[in-house]
Amino acid sequence: MSILDLISKCYTSVMKTIIRFTIQKGKKCYTAYGLELPVVTQAKTLDELTSNIKRAVDLHLEGEDLAELGLVKKPTVLVDYEIPQVSYA
What gap in Å lies between CA 2 and CA 44, rounded to an integer? Predict the structure, then answer.
C-alpha cells in the first residue's frame, strides 16, 4: 500500500463528531438548515428552534447506520447564527 493510499484511507475513515446547522432569522421565524444532512426546520423562538433541530436530527437518523453516514454514535450539533447586516448611522 502506497503512502497516498494510506492517507486516503485514513482521511475517508475519519468519523464526523459534529452535525452543522446554520440559522437565519426571517420576518416571522427562525430557520435552521442542515449543512451535512438534508434537514430544515423553523420556529418562532431560538429555544423552540433548538428543540426542533434535535427532534429533526433524531428523526432523520432514526434507523440509519451512522457509520455508513460517516458519523460517530452520538454526534453533537453545532449551530451558526447569521446576524443580519447592521446599518451604521
Answer: 53
Show me where the domains of the chain are located. 15-81
- Give the model confidence (pLDDT) of 3-60 as tens digits: 666 555 555 557 789 999 999 999 999 999 999 899 999 999 999 999 999 999 999 9
Fold of the domain built from segment(s) 15-81: TTHA1013/TTHA0281-like (3.30.2390)
| C-alpha cell at position 45 | 423562538
Amino acid identity, residue 12?
Answer: T
Residues 6 or more apart in contact with residue 73 via CB below 8 angstroms = 66
pTM, rounded to two decimals: 0.77
